[in-house]
Design a protein that fits this description.
Helix content is 77%, strand content 0%. Among the domains are: 70 residues, Alpha Horseshoe (Serine Threonine Protein Phosphatase 5, Tetratricopeptide repeat), CATH 1.25.40.10; 68 residues, Serine Threonine Protein Phosphatase 5, Tetratricopeptide repeat; 87 residues, Serine Threonine Protein Phosphatase 5, Tetratricopeptide repeat (Alpha Horseshoe), CATH 1.25.40.10. The termini are far apart. The chain is mostly helical. One of its GO terms (biological process) is cell division. Keywords: Cell cycle, Cell division, Mitosis, Repeat, TPR repeat, Ubl conjugation pathway.
Length: 383
């Protein structure tokens, strides 16, 4: 029986890690497995392995179920499972997918101190370091990986991540390519290759990499999502929408898909649809929105402004400005909305804040001049 359990777990890991199944197929497979009463912990553990684009309370409930089922065997088993590095690596992966990059990085750093050779945890650690721009950490980790595992794709993928982080995209592509040469079924290297090409505006090569990834990993929605993003760059919004809908059919719980559908609807001037997609994005975020979703709030503000729902638009701009990012788009959008409401004093204040971020922004400069002129004229008329 132990041999069977090991075999099933390895098979499940292969299916999940190589993106052979969609989210729905993973859930159906898990439901079809026959577990005995004494194997409740194993069922809970498998549920932690599958996709993690779910609400925070759902994911936390999975880990609590695993702990409870393990405690039913013995208290020591529950404690061991709670501190199990495979379980904690799954939790780190969830943090990454929900945009909690700092939390993810801190957890993977602790785990890699415990087990420097845990490759799944290493991959999540690399992804979090990339998002946070920790180039020094990427450099040190990639050097160690190349020294210890020169024949593994993840080692050269790590080198590619370092070069991508410091914006040397040619070198990044070279090392991502080396990773795919060592292991043609290593998903992150194909994604990295496509993204590195896209960063240099080489759309054809990027699309070729994403198409290869879509063919190799049919259960992964990311290649079709990235292809849709490329079509948005080309202003081919109808085709982009088709790819986003295909990505949605593979993984309907990823909020990024809904955000991109909102962007497409906005560009096609379908503002009511855009509002619905952006609201769905915020509904599908795993926990309370973090700064990863600041652009969605700004986009929603722009769309509501187009629909002349100014007060709602202002509320979303203000929510976006509660995050540390505080972007030019949020300040300028808020200023312009106040200007449309004839609140020139507030508009002038926010145009100044926007221009502090980017002094040569033409739109804000022109609209600030217009707001000042209109404000002076209205003051003169009142006198």
């Amino acid at each position: 029986q132990l041999k069977l359990i090991r075999y099933v777990m390895r098979a499940l890991e292969c299916l999940v890690d190589n993106y052979m199944l969609t989210c729905e197929e993973e859930s159906e497979l898990l439901a079809s497995l026959k577990f005995g009463k004494e194997d409740g912990w194993l069922s809970a553990f498998y549920s932690c392995l599958i996709r993690k684009h779910e609400k925070e309370y759902v994911v936390e409930a999975k880990f609590k179920d695993l702990e409870r089922e393990s405690c039913s065997i013995s208290p020591s088993s529950g404690q061991m499972m709670k501190n199990n590095i495979d379980v904690l690596a799954c939790k780190a992966e969830y943090y990454h997918q929900s945009g909690e990059y700092q939390k993810c990085f801190e957890l993977t750093s602790v785990l890699l101190e415990r087990d420097p050779f845990h490759l799944k945890c290493t991959l999540v650690h690399l992804a979090a370091a990339m998002e946070l721009g920790h180039s020094n950490d990427l450099y040190l980790l990639s050097c160690n990986l190349v020294k210890d595992y020169p024949q593994k794709a993840i080692s050269w993928f790590a080198v590619g991540c370092y070069y991508y982080c410091i914006k040397k995209y040619d070198q990044a592509r070279r090392y991502f390519g080396k990773a795919t040469g060592l292991d043609g079924t290593f998903p992150p290297a194909w994604f990295g290759t496509g993204i590195a090409y896209a960063a240099q505006e080489e759309g054809d090569q990027a699309m070729a990499a994403f198409r290869t990834a879509a063919r190799l990993f049919p259960g992964c929605h990311l290649p079709t999502l990235y292809m849709g993003m490329q079509y948005v760059r080309m202003h081919n919004f109808k085709l982009a929408e088709q790819f986003f809908m295909q990505a949605k059919s593979i993984c309907p719980s990823d909020p990024l898909i809904y955000n991109e559908l909102g962007v497409v609807a906005y560009n096609m001037k379908e503002y009511q649809n855009a509002v619905q997609w952006f609201e769905l994005t915020l509904t599908h975020t795993s926990s309370s929105p973090n700064e990863m979703w600041e652009p969605t709030m700004v986009n929603l503000g722009h769309t509501l402004r187009k629909l002349k729902q100014y007060k709602k638009a202002i509320s979303y701009y203000e929510k976006a400005l509660t995050f540390p990012t505080k972007t030019l788009s949020a300040f300028s959008g808020l200023a312009y909305t106040y200007q449309l409401m004839d609140d020139f004093e507030a508009a002038i204040t926010y145009y100044h804040k926007a221009l502090w971020l980017k002094p040569d922004d033409q739109f804000c400069t022109d609209m600030l001049t217009l707001a000042l002129e209109t404000s002076c004229q209205s003051t003169a008329r009142r006198k």
